[in-house]
Design goal:
Length: about 210
């Protein structure tokens, strides 16, 4: 079995509260079983397609709105002993993750902070250890290309610019990083036990 490392985008899946017996939560163990089996469903949707197609323009939009002038998509992979990932943008001591909202409604829904996304940003700060002190979660309402919407393009350019984005900022928190490290270690212990149990039962008549 490979040594378990978590991706920032999945950090929220393992960081739920332990149950009353101190056991990992079900959302965590479900994810760990998928990781162990290397079994992930290929998920494709119009929402993801829009995000992929509009990512570069959303980065340009973010840079303009936040006063960076220019920003480039990061392609480097960063890791430590427990986590590995590729942040969207690293700019001026800040790591930035871009989310392309599907519609005005989904942008407005994002006003309530998604804790999974917060853990994702905190994990990026963690793997960049000392490279950044702050993180920004940036939602952009970009035009929806026809390729992502059954041949129908939707434009939001008639909206005022300030109605087309939403952002949350976070400062690096070493205590939270210590909690993430501890949780990854607990996941590794759980996986060792699960690995042993699976190997005992596969290929045998179990009674």
């Amino acid at each position: 079995m490979n040594k378990f490392k978590i991706r920032p985008s999945s950090m929220g899946k393992i960081m739920g509260k332990l149950d009353k017996n101190g056991e990992l939560p079900k959302t965590c163990t479900t994810y760990l079983k998928e990781w162990y089996a290397d079994s992930y469903e290929e998920i494709s949707s119009k929402y993801m397609t829009k995000g992929i197609l509009m990512e570069d323009k959303a980065i340009d939009f973010m840079a303009e709105q936040l006063g960076y002038g220019l920003a480039e998509k990061n392609i480097n992979i960063y890791s430590n002993e427990w986590c590995v990932g590729t942040p969207d943008v690293i700019q001026d001591n800040t790591v930035i993750d871009i989310k392309c909202s599907w519609s005005k409604k989904t942008l407005h829904d994002a006003i309530e902070l998604n804790k999974d996304y917060e853990f994702q940003l905190r994990a990026y700060m963690w793997v960049l250890d000392g490279g950044v002190d702050t993180a920004i979660l940036f939602y952009a309402l970009m035009n929806t290309p026809a390729e992502a919407n059954y041949g129908v393009e939707v434009s939001y350019e008639h909206l005022a610019t300030n109605e087309r984005w939403l952002a949350f900022g976070f400062a690096r928190d070493l205590d939270i990083e210590a909690q993430m490290k501890e949780r990854v270690e607990l996941c590794r212990e759980w996986l060792e036990e699960f690995d042993s149990e699976v190997k005992k039962k596969l290929g045998k008549i179990n009674k």
